[in-house]
Write a structure and sequence with these properties.
9 helices; two-stranded antiparallel ribbon; 62% helix
Length: 256
């Protein structure tokens, strides 16, 4: 079915909008708490931090589903990668305390490119086999997302990472990193590429318009609007948060 005649899946827009807003709020607490040293923001960040992987996973899975509907994933991915590298350059020069080395935009851009290149072969993969592989791959590499990264079954790591390996300095996009590595926004390819590709496989239902009928009905207009403009919200929120914090400090003074 041509993209121009496909019904819009409003639920995906709404869920993506909600996930983006949650990520923005969490980044706001981090920036205000750790860059500007507001104690209340640090406490809020720590309180909400356990929920971060869940709305991040929702955002990434939906991005994978949407990629199944696109005909130009490689082109979109290359444009997004250029934008992500620009974010790294700008934060390195202007906001070194909030430098973004490999954030969610970097990760999504690489996943889009890989998905676009592999889309034809992936069409031959059985849906349930592919989902099972993505689930197992995510489960075995989710440890790389933790402060002390490892690969293997949680609690029984097969490959415990120790930070002295010199090659790890260049493998941070995969999830292997040195102990002193820092990125204000960090989403490594492992394990998140499995969530993206799993979403891409689920996107077959969206491409064939086989999702439940309630997913096509609009409900929360604000979330839907944010979801349709998620990229710009994500790109602009960090400088806006920092600008707002600077204004508050200048006119009101430090609180907390």
């Amino acid at each position: 079915m041509a993209e121009s005649t496909r019904r819009r899946i409003h639920f995906l827009d709404e869920l993506r909008g909600f996930a983006v807003l949650c990520m923005i709020v969490q980044h706001g607490f981090y920036c205000i708490g750790y860059v500007y040293d507001y104690i209340w923001a640090r406490r809020a960040f720590c309180f909400f931090y356990p929920a971060t992987p869940y709305f991040a996973a929702a955002f990434i899975i939906i991005s994978g589903m949407v990629s199944q509907l696109s005909r130009s994933n490689v082109k979109r991915g290359l444009k997004l990668l250029a934008l992500a590298l620009g974010m790294t350059l700008v934060t390195a020069l202007l906001l070194p305390d909030c430098i973004i080395m490999f954030g969610v935009i970097h990760m999504l851009s690489v996943c889009m490119i890989l998905f676009g290149l592999l889309k034809k072969p992936l069409e031959k993969v059985n849906l349930w086999v592919g989902l099972a592989v993505c689930a197992v791959g995510f489960y075995l590499t989710v440890g790389l997302y933790l402060p002390e990264p490892y690969v293997g079954v949680p609690g029984v790591p097969a490959l415990q990472y120790s930070g002295w390996q010199p090659w790890a300095e260049w493998l941070f996009p995969l999830g292997f990193r040195l102990p002193d590595f820092f990125s204000a926004d960090y989403y490594s390819l492992l394990p998140w590429i499995f969530a993206f590709f799993g979403g891409g496989l689920l996107g077959r239902f969206a491409a064939q318009e086989k999702l439940p009928q309630w997913t096509y009905k609009p409900r929360i207009a604000a979330f839907s609007w944010v979801g349709r403009h998620a990229l710009w919200f994500y790109i602009l929120h960090q400088p806006l948060i920092m600008a707002g914090a600077e204004i508050v400090e200048f006119f009101i003074g430090k609180i907390g």
